[in-house]
Structure formats: C-alpha cells, structure tokens
Please model this.
Amino acid sequence: MDLEDDKYISEDKSGENEPVGTKGTPLFVLVLIAFFALCFVCSAVGCFLYRMYETLPSHNQLQNVEQSLASKVLDKNGKIIHEFSVEKRFWVSIDKIPDDLQNAVIAIEDRGFYKHWGIDVYRVFGAAVANFASGKRSQGASTLTQQLARNVYLTADKSYIRKIREMLTAVKLERTYTKKEIMELYLNQAYLGAGVYGVQAAAEHYFSKHVSELTLGECAVIAGIIQLPEHHRPDREANIGRITTRRNIILRSMAHAKFISDAAAAETINEPVAANPKVYSPPMAPYFMEMVRRYVAEKYGDELLYNGGLVIKTTLDPVAQDSTEKSVSRQARVLQNRLNRLFLDSSNVDRQLKIPRERFMANFDSIYKAHSAEFSQFPDSVRLRTAQLAVVSIDVSTGAVLTLVGGRNFEESRFNRATQARRQPGSAFKTYVYSAALENGFHPASVVLDQPITLITPDGEWRPENFDRTFSGPMTIRNALARSNNLVAIQVFNRIGGQTVVDHARKMGIRRPMNPVPSLAMGSMEVTVMEIVSSYGIYANNGAHAEAYFVQRITDRNGRVLEENTPTVREGVITPQTAFLMNSMLGTVVCCGTAASIPGLGFRRPAAGKTGTTNDYADTWFIGYTPQIVTGVWAGVDERRSMGRGVTGSVGSIPVWVDAMRALHRDLPIEDFSRPEDIKTEFICSESHLISRNSCPNNRMEFFTRETSIDTCAVHSGSRVAPRDGSGMIDLFGPASPQRRPAEEPARQRSLMF
Model:
C-alpha cells in the first residue's frame, strides 16, 4: 500500500472518530427550534381563539335572547282569533312543560346535560374517533347547549370554524344561564317541522292541545321530531313508521336512564302513534284582521308585528261576526241571483248558447266560466256584475267596532268596502237634513206641502220627484222621513239653508266633500260605511259622539302595555233633545216606514234607522240602531251599476242588518231610548197637525221640546184635549199602519249648482 492509500485510510478513520452532531445541527438547537415552534403554534392558536372569542355573542346578547314569537290577536273576550307570524312559535314557561318531555329530550339528545359545562368532552372524543374510523363526519357530539347556541346565534354551516364558535358560545351560555333556563330556551326554540317552532306550537299543531296536557307517548314523539323534523312529523302518513321507531328508541332510553319505569315504556311502546292535527279554519273577520295588521305594522313595524310576540286585544265580537259573515254570504247569493238573471235578460246568452234559462241559472258559475272569453266581449253595460256587501257595527257609548265585513270574499278581493269604498248614501243622508231642521225651528209635527217643485240649476230646470211619482199634500216631517219623501226633504233643506245642513253633517262626523245644493238632501255626495255608521251613533248616544276604534290594547312579549285605547267621546255634538226627537222619528221608519219589515224578520227591540237607495238601484243602505249598538249595511256592485229594479235598502240591506243585530244583542238587556226631562208630549190632530180638541176625530201623540209652542186645531170646534205624559214608543206610531210600506226615492246622482 502506498502513501496515498495510507492517506485516504487515515482520513476515513478520522471521520469515524468524530462525535455525533459535530457535522450537523447540534441537538440543543433542534430542541430550541421545536420549543419556539410550539410556542408560535400555541400563540397563533391562542390568538385565533381570542379573536374568535371576541366575535362571540356579548354578555348582554346572551342575557337578552329575543326569539321570534307569533303575535296573537284576541277578541273582546280575550280569546285568540288570529296570529301574525313568520315562525309559528308561542313561548311557554318551563313549569308548564311536562317532565316527561324534558326527560325525553335529555334521554335522546344529551344524556349528560346536567353534568357537563356546555361541552361533553367524552362525546366529542368518541365522535371524533368514530368519524376518523369512517372517514367522514358521520356522528355529531353537540350538547343541548351547543344546539341552542347554533340555533340562536350561529348558522347551520358545517365547518370546523363554526363548530369551534358553537362550543365557545355554549360555554358562555352555561356561565350565563342555569340548566333549567337553558332547557326552557331550547324547548321554546327548537324547530319541530310544519313551520312550527317550540314545543307549545308543536303540541297545538300535532295534537290540538296545550303542551302541559301531553301524554308520555306524545312527549316522546315531539322529542323524536327534533332530529329530522320533516322526516318525523307525525301528521304525515308516510312518516308514521319512522316516528314510531324513533319514539320507541326514546322510550327505551328514558327507561334506561331511570326517567320512567320499564313497564311504562313497554306499555307506551305498544300504543300506536296517533296525531290529532289542529284543523285551521278560515281566518275570522279577514277584513277586520287586515285593518289590525295595517294599524300595528304602520305604528310598530313589521318586525315587531310578525316576530315580536305582541298580544293585540281587539273589540271584535266573534259570535256576532260569525253570524254577520254567514248572513252576508247568504244575501250575496240572493243578490247575485238577481244580477245573474239581469245579465241573461240583457245579453240573451242563454238563447244564443241554446241552454234553458233555469238550467243556466242553476249552473251559472260553471257555465259562465266555460264561456268567459265570449262574455268578456260584451259591452260594459251588459257584463255580469258581482254583488258586494259591507257591514259595520259599533257600540254607541264607547265607539268599539264589534263587527266588520268589507266584502263577500276576502280572497277574491281585499278591497275593504266598509272603510275604503265611497258610495252615495241616498236617502240615508236625509237624517242630517231633519236633525239640522230640528235645531233650527222645526219639530216632528212641522208640516211641509208635498207638491211638485221646480228648481233652476246651471243645467236648466230640475223637477225632482218622489219615488212613486205621487204627491201627498200637507205632510209632517215625521211622516216624510218615514216614507222617505224626496220633495219634503228638499224643501226643508232649502228653508234652513244648504250650508246649515253641510255644517251640521260635518259636526256629526261626515268628512267627505259636500256641495250645499238641494240634491244633497237626497244623498248626492259620498261616504264610507264606517263614517256614516259612526255618525248615526250620535243619535243613539244622546247627542255624544264616541269615536270608532278597533284595537283596545297591545302588550309586548313581556306583558308591558304598549298602548291602551279608551273611549274618546265628544259630548254635545247635538242636543239630547234633538237626539231623542230623531230617535222617535227614525223609530217610525222602523215601525211603519221603509224599514217596517224589521219586526217581521225577528228583531223587535226598540230600534230606529233609515234606509237609502241611490239612482237606478246602484246602492242600497240601512243604518239602524238601538240604544246600545248601531249597525250599517251597504249592498251594491263595485262598478256602480244597477242591482236590478226593486232592490232598495229594505230588500238589499235589512236582512243582513237583522241577523247582525240579533247576534249583537244576544246577551244585552232590552232598553228604550232615554227621554230628556224637557221633552213634552201633546196630542195632535191627524188632519190639521195642531194640538187636538175633543172634537178632533183622529189624533196621535207627538213629542216636542218644552219651549215649543203649537197652535190649537182650528178645523174642528170643541174644547182642547189635555196633554198627557207618556214615554212608550208605541205611542209614536199612531192608530194604524199604512196600507202599504212606502218605497224610498233613489237619489239623483248629478250635482246641482245654485
């Protein structure tokens, strides 16, 4: 071996003899690097968790959980009649939730609920192992507190970041609430299928009962819905097998956890799952509820209305409302049959289609629908009209709206004809003419000559007529009002002055434009049903006007009163004497005038009112009242076309009025109109309409204010009959009723300028 070889050998040996690590990084350096790396990772994780913790719900947010709650609408008796909600949810305290339901949820969702501090570490570890073994996230480990955190504060996004936020929020919740409070929040928040949230809404929806009334099996069913709500809801036949299996698993889990006995579990397992779904009837008073919705939404906002859990107590009388709605439906069919026949008379389509008229009438809707394209080509004056009605009832002393119907069908048309439609009142306006006259020198026995009159207008001469085109000669204003005489009303209007009538009507609450011309006496202006009904209540309320209202009280979810409406009454709108005299005169309308059909239809209490019909029978009215309640009924068509010859206020409106008033007075005592002390009675000669004598062959009793001075009859000789006091309303009506009920005069539609 040469020297070179020795050299290489020597170098190799020297390398073998070097200490370990002298050629690479020293060991302590590696340890140091690992330490700093670990510190960096811990710091990063800590910083990440701290920043995430800062984004979690604040302590104040945790303490003020605002769940979405349905707002309830109550009738005047405090019974729920409607709900406004996005999420159907009703809060119920934990004390009202059965222990079986609480235990069922714990048994299936979180067995260690009362032991953990928001996170169940053992369940997390077990789920992690199972998920790792399966290669996917097949198991969850969320506690009830985590589920609550996710449902209230977070989203359902399946990510590790969301899961960490969920855990941290659960820990904060456990530090903020007791276990009992967390359970209460959870059970009122959980989604349980069919659009319902919380166990109270679920109990009502699936079993038609309060949550406190649930049986053990029903509690297990509701607990079983939580996992897959739409998959397990028991009101679907396809789900019965699945929810039965799920219920039985829960019952066995409850027995295993010693919440129930094995015997109770076995007995309940043998029972079939039988839901009793709540039957949701069509909403009561839909036009009224829409008024409530608009009122609350405009004042408090949609968010509070639909999610705020408000309790809105209204003035609605549910029994009378139901009776009124049914009557409106019946009367709408009656009036529609008239309109259908009018349509056939004007179009002759039954002949064109070669369909017998009676068959056409019996199957009108289906036949009309089948040929609707052809019928739409008819001129506007020939097309079919739809009968509509509107009704408003008000408590005269408080102004509370007791019933309201805005049309025949809310789904067909949401236009509220009780508050939004402006229609001519026809002869129903004459009450303002006569009450203004009573305050300007007239009395019920004042005589006006019913005779032809000619008025000069910018359009030329106008010769108004009575409905029957006859003239009765001298007539008291009591009889003129009872017979709805046009010519007398116009003459009274002219005598006291048109502006006087306008001012009087304004004082009584009529806000629509009124032109002080003679045609106004026959109702040529426009009003809403609500407006004129509220105004008529002044007569019944001794001259005081109670402003109409329909929301009595609104409270928030915590019972705090947001508003409470009390009656607003304007005293002395008209004098009590004028109110009483009008009551007596309008009582004659009901007894012996255009509304004389009322007693025969079954309403025999002391009542007063006035019919109204406009030109060509386009609008029919009756506004009538007792000392307690005033109700107005309008019938017509939206297009302001004829309802058909003979459809007057007594035909079109009174049948509904009677049905409504009978229901409204079902529990009220019979009352008569109060009589002021300074009202006197006198016997009046039926021929001269002056104070009667012994020799007067016919006389009747009449009311006057005490200061009214009346001459004695000069037609018949003899001594004067001494006046006598009397308060019975029957004395107002005279010795006999007319042979026939007078018809009322349709109002002229054109406005007249003078």
DSSP finds 29 helices and 20 strands in the chain. Residues 58 and 392 are 51 Å apart (CA to CA). The two ends are 149 Å apart (CA to CA).
